[in-house]
Specification:
It comes from Actinomadura gamaensis. The chain contains eleven helices and 15 strands. The chain is of the alpha/beta class and 324 residues long.
């Protein structure tokens, strides 16, 4: 089978398609034949980081994360053999392959009528978007800001904020195409975050302040976002695509603001029942069409370099998927 890895850190060209044997599922695992693999921007940061002291650094050879949708071919020990033949989705840290080992505990059943590429948004992107809104305690009528709103997670968060009752949804994006998408997805105000005064534009759209902000950029963008919060406003930070894991000035929280960090694994450990309920809710929203999963690019598994160039150039609206 085909398996994508990299043996040196660097640009997209370090990615290589290799031949590998089909792995056997161990205890608690299933082997899934992939229909699609959803790509994640974080792998761009992991692939190019050369400093061993950085949190983005990974030992070599490196593998690529992804959200795999496919059919269970074999089950390991302590796993229900009845899962064989079932269509599922799950996250893997070694996902770019024809056949992938997945943790059986967090498999998401995928309805037959749901497009595989859209289903790839369930296990991670959708779960993070909905989890951020949950821990951020979004309330009816509140103003919500989503930075990097046209990304894999952001475009879902914009829609979910509205579905959760937000009164005003503001989103930021860096290109006209992405801003047009956000307007089409229902954002009330769409701001160009490449503009020097983007935060002033947000203030004009939300003169009383933002009640909840979801940020995946970090760095200066996060600092500006904190200053946009209303009294008792909350910022939920779930990424740092700018590469800057900045500290938060204490003065930012003295103004009755709070900052919450979100990661999916701790959320699952702390609130497993809620996390599973989130997956059920997301599946139904996608199946019914109430939530729209935007698939911006489909790339063959044989072209991992092109896939990562698209991610690195931020040229994709919504999600990029690989097709074996």
């Amino acid at each position: 089978m085909r398996h994508v890895r990299y043996h040196a850190h660097g640009g997209p060209e370090v990615l290589a398609v290799e031949e590998a044997g089909v792995p056997e599922p161990g205890p608690g695992q299933v082997l899934v034949r992939a229909e699609v693999i959803g790509a994640n921007y974080v792998d761009v940061q992991l692939r190019r980081e050369t400093d061993p002291s950085s949190i983005w650094y990974r030992e070599l050879p490196g593998t690529l994360t992804g959200d795999v949708v496919g059919t269970v071919e074999r089950t390991g020990a302590d796993v229900d053999p009845g899962l064989t033949g079932k269509r599922v989705a799950a996250v893997s840290v070694d996902a770019w392959s024809d056949a992938v080992l997945l943790d059986a505990d967090w498999l998401v059943p995928v309805p037959d009528g749901l497009d595989a590429a859209e289903a790839s948004l369930l296990p991670l992107a959708g779960a993070v978007a909905l989890g951020c809104l949950t821990v951020g305690r979004v309330a009816a009528g509140e103003t919500v800001l989503v930075t990097a709103g046209a990304g894999t997670i952001g475009h879902l968060a914009v829609q979910l904020a509205r579905l959760r009752g937000a009164g005003t949804v503001i989103a930021t994006a860096g290109s006209p195409e992405k801003r047009d998408l956000l307007a089409d997805l229902g954002a009330d105000a769409v701001i160009d975050h490449t503009a020097a005064d983007w935060d002033e534009q947000v203030k004009a759209a939300a003169p009383e302040g933002v009640h909840l902000a979801l940020d995946a950029i970090g760095g200066d963008a996060l600092h500006r976002t904190l200053n946009l919060l209303a009294p008792f406003g909350r910022a939920v930070v779930y990424g740092a695509s700018a590469g800057d894991l900045t500290s938060v000035p204490v003065t930012s929280v003295f103004a009755l603001r709070s900052v919450i960090g979100f990661a999916l694994l701790p959320y699952r450990l702390a609130r497993p029942e809620q996390a599973r309920a989130d997956l059920d809710e997301l599946t139904e929203l996608l199946r019914s069409g109430k939530l729209r999963g935007v698939i911006g690019a489909r790339v063959p598994l044989d072209e991992p370099v092109r896939a990562h160039r698209l991610l690195e150039e931020r040229a994709v609206l919504g999600r990029l998927v690989l097709e074996p």
